[in-house]
Amino acid sequence: MITKDSLIVAAQEQTFSELDHETVILHLKSGVYYGLNAVGTTIWNLIQQPRAITEILDAMLTQYQVEASVCEQTC
């Protein structure tokens, strides 16, 4: 179960490229591409190092104008 204290980190078998605040990720083993918008890109950049969910939430609340309850439900 993932809790607010859980550590999250991007998987090593992925490569990515960022363009205009959006990110494209390629999972090297499966060959599947993923696209992230600006908010997803912010999270992606944060999880390049292990981070607790609470750290990610705090960063999102600092960067974006969103209420904590809305941010927590979305995440």
TrEMBL record:
Taxonomy, superkingdom: Bacteria
Annotated InterPro entries: PQQD, PqqD_sf
Any Pfam family: PqqD
Stated name of the protein: PqqD family protein
